[in-house]
Design goal:
Length: 397
């Protein structure tokens, strides 16, 4: 009798999983320009359902929708190109799953363009109005690589639910739902004082607040986004910090922010924040990438090991953290939030969850970027062990 009940349970579970699989449709393809060049960081999604993804540097994208979305429109937007729309069912019927965007040329005359600070001031003034500023939940895929002596030696990946209020405020709370790590080939095992997602927001000039007078501003180019002309404003703070703001000339929306910073000798930070629209035209974070570079003293025991192996003994070694962040989904209905409370004052490695390979297999992960492939290639080259095998043997089941 017990055997029959167990068998029935397995049959029901299999049927349920099969039904779920049938209800999901993979939206996958590439975004190209008219010359066949790949378009990176394009926003692809179904606006009326707030679902979608961002294309990689190779223009590739992937996300899942339910079969109820077959009649919805797929919208593709990217800086410098005319927004493209196609019915989901028509896209699925394409023989080649390629979306060709038309370049939108702009020639913004210096005569008709206001002083660049006019656009920066209004963009910052309207930041709250132009972004999702009420509590919303972001499903975040957070990746961090630890680099020592110019080679990636450790990788950690978190699936996070975070309650955010947009770039004009801060993350309210977050919880790490799933985590997995590579093998740990570090010899310094340097750790961050807080979760990397907190550094992501602390390093964002929009969240900290930009003092316009502290920078020298100039127009460095123009583009477009979703049929709106975009002006590129470069702010320079001596040799310490440079930021670029991609600002819509009519709406003053900030579609993209880039930053280079040298807070002190031997340290640097490069970061990019890309935003996309929800159904109401309000912006929220879509993709983030940054790299912090510095140095750390080498412990005496490591020095002795280096010396015994015939290596050159140094007092300091270059270290870095490389980060890549995808926002996989946004939820604005508070009744559907699933984020628990979690303290952010500890390193990513201190957040322990049971390793669930099935979760990562089913997760709506975008195609691997060149940035991701480069880092993983460095990690795998150390001892010739594939990342999948490292996941298999380095995580608690």
């Amino acid at each position: 009798m017990r055997y029959i009940v167990s068998l029935l349970t397995l049959i029901i579970l299999f049927c349920s999983l099969n039904l779920i699989a049938q209800e999901n449709i993979a939206i996958t393809g590439k975004v190209l320009d008219q010359n066949g060049y790949k378009i990176p960081y394009a926003a692809i999604g179904i606006l009326n359902k707030n679902i979608g993804s961002t294309s990689t540097e190779d223009g590739a994208f992937y996300f899942l929708v339910s079969n109820h979305a077959i009649e919805d429109s797929l919208t593709v937007s990217s800086l410098g190109f005319t927004t493209f729309k196609i019915k989901v069912k028509d896209f699925l019927n394409l023989q080649k799953k390629e979306i060709i965007l038309e370049e939108k040329t702009t020639a913004l005359s210096e005569v008709v363009v206001n002083d660049i600070t006019y656009y920066v001031k209004n963009a910052l003034k309207k930041l709250r109005a132009n972004t999702v500023n009420k509590n919303h939940q972001l499903n975040v895929l957070y990746r961090r690589w630890s680099v020592e002596d110019n080679l990636c030696r450790f990788f950690i990946e978190h699936s996070i639910n975070a309650i955010d209020r947009g770039p004009s405020s801060y993350i309210v709370k977050f919880s790490v739902d799933q985590a997995r790590t590579s093998a740990d080939y570090r010899f310094l095992k340097n750790e961050q004082k807080i979760h990397a997602i907190k550094y992501m927001e602390y390093n964002n000039p929009l969240r900290k607040g930009i003092n316009i007078k502290s920078y020298k501003w100039k127009k460095t180019g123009d583009s477009s986004y979703d049929n709106e002309d975009v002006i590129i404003a470069k702010g320079q703070m001596g040799n310490k910090e440079t930021i670029w703001l991609y600002i819509g000339m009519d709406s003053f929306r900030i579609y993209k922010l880039e930053m280079k910073k040298k807070p002190e000798i031997g340290r640097s930070l490069h970061a990019t924040y890309i935003y996309k629209k929800n159904i109401d035209g309000l912006l929220y974070l879509s993709y983030h990438q940054r790299e912090w570079e510095g140095s750390a003293p080498i412990p005496e025991n490591v020095k002795r090991t280096m010396k015994s192996n015939g290596n050159v003994v140094k007092d300091y070694i270059p270290i870095a953290y490389r980060h890549e962040v995808y926002v996989l989904n946004i939820e604005e209905d508070k009744s559907r939030f699933s984020t628990g409370d979690m303290l952010g004052n500890k390193d990513m490695t201190e957040y322990k969850t049971a390793y669930n390979p099935a979760f990562w297999t089913a997760l709506n992960i975008p195609p691997s970027t060149r940035y991701y492939k480069k880092n993983i290639s460095e990690l795998e080259s150390l001892f010739g062990v594939s990342l999948e095998n490292q996941f298999k043997y380095s995580n608690t089941k």
